[in-house]
Specification:
Blueprint lengths: L2 H4 L4 H13 L4 E6 L6 H12 L3 E7 L1 H8 L8 H10 L5 E5 L5 H7 L3 E5 L10 H6 L3 E5 L7 H11 L1
Parallel strand pairs: 1-2, 1-4, 2-3, 4-5
Length: 161
């Protein structure tokens, strides 16, 4: 197994690892998404998310859940490749695949200190926010870089080629 595969964890592994980090006094940040075709908006967002704590955990939608959310032609990049790519980023400490419609169950199992989403969400609309706040954690939004989206990128490719 290589370094990027080592950062892709099963739920049991992630739960134990996060508990260890928290016992050591580290703040664990959690975010989630599809990250289908990675672009500057993703990198900027994930760097800012990591800066909010000591460790960044990424909940990554499975291929099946991306298709349910984005339509039958998505994802463009399969979950194994997306997971490896996300794990290769130095500011992501662990990647966990999830198939549920929202990451709420994952968040409840992992118990992060800080839950983060882009500012296209409000605290009230972030899945798992109630749980994190009830457990003494924080919920934050991060300003997204304007003009970057996977959907827009796909459209540009379709128009130009």
């Amino acid at each position: 197994m290589n370094a990027t595969e080592n950062k892709i964890l099963r739920l049991e592994e992630a739960t134990a690892q996060i508990a260890d980090w928290q016992r050591a006094g580290q703040k664990v940040v959690f975010t989630n998404g599809c990250f289908d075709i990675v672009h500057l908006g993703h990198i900027d967002y994930l760097e800012k998310a990591h800066a909010l704590g000591d460790r960044l955990i990424l909940g990554l939608n499975t291929d099946a859940s991306v298709s349910r959310l984005k339509g039958p032609l998505r994802p463009v990049v399969n979950e194994y490749a997306r997971g490896r790519l996300m794990a290769a980023l130095s500011f992501i400490d662990a990647v966990i695949l999830f198939d549920e419609p929202t990451p709420t169950e994952l968040i409840e199992a992992l118990k992060p200190d800080i839950l983060v989403k882009g500012d296209d969400y409000t605290v009230e609309t972030i899945a798992g926010a109630d749980f994190v706040l009830a457990n003494g954690g924080e919920v934050k939004t991060i300003a997204l870089v304007k003009g970057y989206s996977t959907t827009a990128l796909i459209e540009k490719i379709k128009q130009g080629y």
